[in-house]
Amino acid sequence: MTLTAAGGAPARPIGVRLHGRRLRLLLGGLLLGVVVAGGCARGGEPPDLVLDGSPRLPDAEGLATVVESDRIQVGGVDYRVSPDLVVFSTHNLELTPLLRWEGAYVQVGLDGDVVAWLAGVGGVISGEPPSVLFTGQIDMLDGDRVMFRGGTVFRLEPAATRSFAPGSFVIAEIDPVRGIVRRLDPT
């Protein structure tokens, strides 16, 4: 059987021949597509925050002294705010409004210099020195860090280290200026 094209002329095999410039354009386009697809898969963003009690190591923590829809100042450092910012309370992991945490002690997760998540810890108790109290159940003590059920993690001052078994309920007294737990006491 012979194939014929319109007008009765013999049909030429359908094929794509790529030489020189066309081949380079095709390969360049394929490479660009792979790079773009790989970039979209990650998006340049941190992994999604899952509020399931997994430990959350903050990139920064301190007093939120300036809180606006597009920027926040934590511990005296200015950060931009992600349009996809996740704001929640460390006490119950419920989502909260950003403005609720102005003047309070917070922990933040960063994507570069952009705040991707903000965990509100609590208000500052004035006094000399000022402090923030956090009540929680210890998941584990690991060197200079204490991890709580619910995922909150704080750095410990060496003097704060005590022997607490996992599951112990404690009050952590936080130095809001230094961002460190001064002491742990049983509840």
Describe the secondary structure blueprint for this structure.
Elements: H1 20-42, E1 60-67, E2 71-74, E3 77-89, E4 105-111, E5 114-122, E6 132-142, E7 145-148, E8 153-155, E9 169-175, E10 180-186
DSSP strand tally: 10
What is the rounded distance between the termini? Answer: 91 Å
The coarse overall form would be globular
CATH A-level architecture of the domain at 60-122: Beta Barrel
Say what the CATH topology of the domain at 60-122 is: OB fold (Dihydrolipoamide Acetyltransferase, E2P)
Number of DSSP helical runs: 1
Helix content: 10-25%
Could you characterize what this model shows?
There is one protein chain. The protein is mostly beta strands. Among the domains are: 63 residues, OB fold (Dihydrolipoamide Acetyltransferase, E2P) (Beta Barrel), CATH 2.40.50; 55 residues, Roll (SH3 type barrels). It contains 1 helix and 10 strands. Strand 4 and strand 5 form a beta hairpin.
Summarize, please.
The chain is mainly β. The protein has one helix at residues 20-42, and strands at 60-67, 71-74, 77-89, 105-111, 114-122, 132-142, 145-148, 153-155, 169-175, 180-186.
